[in-house]
Amino acid sequence: MEFKRVNLDNLEAEHICCAITEKKGEICVSSKKQWLRQRMEEGLVFLKLDERGKVFIEYLPAEAAWAPIEAPGYLYIDCFWVSGKYKGKGYGDALLEECIADGKAQGKTGLVVLSTKKKMPFISEPGYLKYKGFIVADTCEPYYELLYLPFGEKAPVPKFRDSVKNTVVPKEGWTLYYTNQCPHTAKYVPILVDVAAERGIAIKAIHLDSREAAQNAPNPFTTYALYRDGEFLTNEILSEKSFMKKL
Predict the structure, then answer these.
(1) β-bridge mates for residue 226, sequence order
(2) pLDDT tens digit sequence for 43-90
(3) Res 19 pLDDT > 80
(4) Which pLDDT tens digit goes with each residue over 136-193?
(5) How far apart are CA 130 and CA 120, in angstroms?
(6) Exposure check for the chain: N or C terminus, fewer CB within 10 A?
(7) Distance from chain centroid for Cα 186
(8) What Å distances lie between residue 171 and 14, 73, 223, CA to CA?
């Protein structure tokens, strides 16, 4: 299995696996690469199969993670994806083993990752992670789990920040929190806002554009979180069709 590490030297030329094909005028790939460029300077690792497929793992020091967690000394798995024809061939196991080996080489305490009680779109699969030894460290509503894989018996247990335990979001109207961690948001957030406006629905789109903002977000999945009248609706990045279905 040949994996390639995407870094500052080859980022511009590399296919980043999950990126959708851009049409003229779109910025989905460039926005994700810009986000990656800044995070790589803070220690982010992007390891992928040397193919144009969705087989990769993306992780960084938990202190630098764009997530409302407290996990000092850990590596945070920001995105971990194996899909399509690449499933069932051991790529996921191999990528996770590479991440574990890197964490131990860096002297880290363990790995931590956001998941859910049952499989949800865009979030790492809980069944697989628990099978690989990850333990529930903390939970928050409505279905989020913070999973961790300690490297030693005395490793401290990570936890969610208070911002997701005592959620504060506008009580009236639609509110969307998002970042550029995923290339899909740069494309679909404007579409969502426009489609809603055409139907007389105003969506307040809040771009979490700094680590501080993301680490104090009201939802653990800072990539995308849609609320209506203060109630959480979904973390699934909605296309026009899927939004209409939600309506």
Answers:
(1) 176, 234
(2) 999 999 988 888 999 999 999 999 999 999 999 999 999 988 999 999
(3) no
(4) 999 999 999 999 999 999 999 999 999 999 999 999 999 999 999 999 999 999 999 9
(5) 15
(6) C
(7) 14
(8) 42, 36, 21
What is the spatial distance between Cα 53 and Cα 122, in angstroms, rounded to a whole number?
A: 16
- What does the mean pLDDT of the chain come to? 94
Letter for the amino acid at 207?
H
Q: Which tokens is 227 given?
A: 């609320």
pTM score of the predicted model: 0.94
- Token pair for 139: 């939970």
CA atoms within 13 Å, Cβ hemisphere of 35: 28
The residue assigned the tokens 């404007």 is 190
